[in-house]
Specification:
By secondary structure, the chain is α+β, with helices and mostly antiparallel strands. It is 38% helix and 31% strand.
């Protein structure tokens, strides 16, 4: 299956909504089950919201991926915002620098099968997640 990559610029709530809808469509097209589609959409919602809240703009990239017999969806959320000062703290439940419950990034990690986070203070953040069929 050769599905096109989708790139969505994130800077407004409308972009956020578009990224969620696009992630659902991509996950469905990749053959993920309904519950997996919902998990991908929830993860994209959190990642795109973080872009708006902390960096003000960035991009969500959705792509179909395979690894041997496995197939699934990859989501890359990146920005050139302030970066994450302490990744270890950011990945702890209930840690928040934005006055929220602090379940976002740890929650995304639990929702998806693979999670990678790269961040540099003053340069930005790139989070890559995958959900396998």
């Amino acid at each position: 299956m050769n599905l096109p990559e989708m790139r969505i610029w994130i800077s407004t709530e409308a972009n956020l909504a578009r990224s969620i809808m696009a992630s659902r469509k991509m996950a469905e097209s990749a053959g993920l089950q309904a519950n997996q589609v919902a998990l991908v959409a929830t993860a994209v919602s959190e990642l795109a919201r973080n872009i708006i809240k902390y960096a003000h703009h960035g991009e969500v990239i959705l792509r179909y991926v395979t690894h041997g017999p496995k197939q699934g969806v990859e989501v890359v959320a990146w920005d050139h915002g302030p970066g994450i000062e302490c990744v270890e703290s950011a990945m702890s439940d209930h840690h928040s620098t934005g006055g929220t419950l602090g379940l976002g990034l740890p929650g995304v990690k639990r929702l998806m099968d693979e999670f990678e986070l790269e961040s540099e203070v003053g340069k930005g953040t790139r989070i890559t997640v995958r959900k396998w069929k």
